[in-house]
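Internal ticket #5521
Category: modeling
Description: The requester needs a full-assembly model to guide mutagenesis choices. All entity lines are attached below as received. Residue total reported by intake: 657.
Assigned to: D.W.
Attached entities:
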Amino acid sequence: MIEFNPGLIMILGGLLIPLASGNARRALLLGLPIVGFIYTIALVPGMSVDFVMFGYVLEVLRVDDLALVWGYIFHIAAFLGVLYALHEDDPLQGAMAQIYMGSAVGAVFAGDLITLFVFWELTAISSVFLIWASGTERALRSGMRYLVVQIGSGVLLLAGAILIFNDTGSLAFNHIGIESLGGKLVLLAFGIKCAFPLLHNWLQDAYPEATVTGTVILSAFTTKLAVYSLARGYAGTEILIVIGAIMTAFPIFYAVIENDLRRVLAYSLNNQLGFMVVGIGIGTELALNGTAAHAFSHILYKALLFMSMGAVLFRTGTIKGSELGGLHKTMPWTTGFCIVGAASISAFPLFSGFISKSMILTALGHEGHWLTWAILIFASAGVFHHSGIKIPYFAFFAHDSGKRPQEAPLNMLLAMGLAAFLCIGIGVYPDALYAILPFPVDYVPYTTAHVITQLQLLMFSALAFTFLMLKGLYPPEIKSTNLDFDWLYRKLLPKIVNSMGRKIIKIDRAVRSYLLEILSAFIGQVERWNGMNGALAKTASIGSMGVFAVGLLAVFLVLYFIL
Amino acid sequence: MSDHHDNNGQQETGWFEKKRNVRKIIWALVIICVGLFFADGLYHKHPYFAAENIFGFYAIYGFVMCVGLVLGAKWMRTILMRDEDYYDKDDNND
């Protein structure tokens, strides 16, 4: 078998998409992830391809158990995303999506930091087209902010890689750690892409502005690539436990009050990443298995949720909770699939989240981090609250909006059905997923205690929701924008720059007018002496010249006698 | 699957909109919750943390924290909520 990085299949194949049309293009779109998947299955841990450039050894293919988990799920997500978007006739978006997905796969199989950097930047540049394809002014601006942040992350990665090379003489992408400056820079680069607290807003800003199909594809790759990179470079870095715990908790408050249902999902995506980051921070085999398993199931249920909300947006033209409701009457399949996604993210027994998230929580228990554990349990209840209940409830039930949209197109239903099938399949038969995890699994998710305690947590959260609804205490869906950290660079910073600009203009004006005054005074003086009637500009007669010469001679004569 | 029809005027009440059925769902939820709460006495616990020994800990914690979450988020609205086109307006002025 010729060994090469499997990401190239979708990247190079993606370039051909604009050349094909109709069924040929559709076949290509669906075929590339399938071919890539089959090739990835054929890869065996230990395979490696080196490439020497300018005397540096780059490992453009490195296959191991960790990379393979992401390799598999990225191809599955790619296929689902493409199937979901199959009704679209947009060759540019189709091509860019393939390049984006291929780059994410490529990055996962990168064995050195420079190869990682190249694919890292390629994901950024290609994915922004999925946002811009919306064609709105908002999407254009949002995409620009997204691009700046993503490219910035790549630049930090490159800077860190260079420093690491200087320190160690190696570019290999293995455990990095935060001891060196290079390690800190790379962590920051990964942290931006992983939407760490305060670095997170590009996610909630850009994903809801992308196209119906673009958001589904975006949701799977960028942040999970960051999770993979963190797992490889920073496993066991304790600060990640704290960062992850914060990530699980604070976005859920925003999710409760957010009106744009795709933005609610973006906040909950952020919260789910928190669980994975905690797992990486713990760094034990169980925790890292938990992170890998949770990334796997998360990609599926999050894509499923975004697909269901995308279908609603596609059919009704809006995704605002305040304008939706009652859609289950005409979109029953979409409603059902959404509920499967909601049950999976909420970690109901028999659904995928149940068998993956609990590994991370159990690992926390082993290590005795009680505060983090308490926060993660709270966040688990909160996830059910906003993703499990709020999303399906306000879109498909609640008060009848009077909207009677058609059911989603067949290709969307197929993609959702397949994702839902996998969500339930993993929940019912977790061993299939456990078999591909990086470390041997010695964990049993279905114990009496786990099932009962999890159901208690979830059903009492539902009870709380019902109680608040009946009492009229639940915050209604309101058309609004909620300020988040991006307010700093979207509002405050421009304000400061503008007011500073105004001040600079003022000072500049004052200095100029002062200089002008001096200049005009000088010109006035010159004018007085040398102007039309100025003493130095007068034309004098020859006679007066004679008088001047005589006077001068007289002065000489006097001086001659004196000296 | 029903056909596409925009009938804003005549709104048939679905199963989920009838008060009687909503009450049924709520009662079912309450009964499940009561059952789950007392199910805590039916199995042997292997707790990692002391709090897990409290009878019905996950139920109480889930309920209290969710009410806290919603009330907290509601309070956040008083500080953080702006018009829907808050950022767009600003973009045009600059």
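Resolution: model delivered.
Comment from assignee: Residues 1-10 of chain B have pLDDT under 50 and may be disordered.
Ticket closed.
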